[in-house]
Amino acid sequence: ADKTGEDLTKEFSPKLRQLFLLLLLYSGGNGNHKGISTEQLTALLWPDASSESAKNSRGVAFNKLREVISTIGNIQIVHQHHAWYVEIGTDVQCDYLLFVKRKKELNSHSSKKKNETFAALVELLSKGRLLPELSYEWLDPIKTALTNEVASLLLKYLQQTDSNKQSELAVKTAETLFLWDSLNEESLRNI
């Protein structure tokens, strides 16, 4: 949605959506901190285009994307050190980057703060899986890796809370694990 709450879905063509997702997913999560190269973008989004045609299509797509995201808030497309990525300001909420932030916080907080951070993470993850309605050849491995990471994280919590399986957070964690990995037996035992 833009700054006024208007849905911008119609502004994103399939190619524009893929471009934005690539920039976002390569901007700071799951080991993709360096961005994505022009060559990678071209190979993924314009694989059959000539060099000149791909360059032109890329330029048009970036201009259109900049125009659309300018209505959302502080989102900048950056090209630095031969890599493309987006920088998202604090005025824009992005669940994926919030997940990455919460995951980092889990590794750096004391146990009391860790429980609060984990509860916030479960609340975020309970919204559902990453881009369930989209399937691109390049996106599927990213979604699978993220699903496995989330399942592992949630399962680790459930295994550490054996003595209090009926706590509200344990139940919510099991439900969220089931949402992300419906074949996980541990989540079924804890719901």
Note down, in words, how this protein is organized.
By secondary structure, the protein is mainly α. It contains 8 helices and 2 strands. The chain has a two-stranded antiparallel sheet with strand order 1-2. A hairpin with a 2-residue loop joins strand 1 (75-80) and strand 2 (83-88). The longest helix is centred in the last third of the chain and has 22 residues, at 139-160.
Short description, anyone?
56% of the residues lie in helices and 6% in strands.
**Strand/helix succession:** HHHEEHHHHH
Number of helices: 8
Regions with little confidence, pLDDT below 50 for 5+ residues: none
Q: What gyration radius follows from the Cα positions, in whole Å?
A: 19 Å
Alpha-carbon distance between the termini? 34 Å
Q: Classify the secondary structure makeup into a structural class.
A: mainly alpha
Q: Approximately how much beta-strand content do the residues carry?
A: 5-15%
DSSP E strands, number: 2
Q: Considering DSSP H and I runs of 4 or more, what fraction of the residues is helical?
A: 55-70%
Strand order of the largest sheet: 1-2
Largest sheet, if any? Answer: 2 strands, antiparallel
Output mean pLDDT.
85
Q: Label the overall shape.
A: elongated
Topology at a glance:
Layout: H1 14-25, H2 38-45, H3 51-69, E1 75-80, E2 83-88, H4 95-106, H5 111-125, H6 139-160, H7 168-180, H8 185-190
Antiparallel strand pairs: 1-2
Question: Which characteristics define this entry?
Answer:
single chain; 191 residues; mainly alpha; 2 strands; 56% helix; elongated
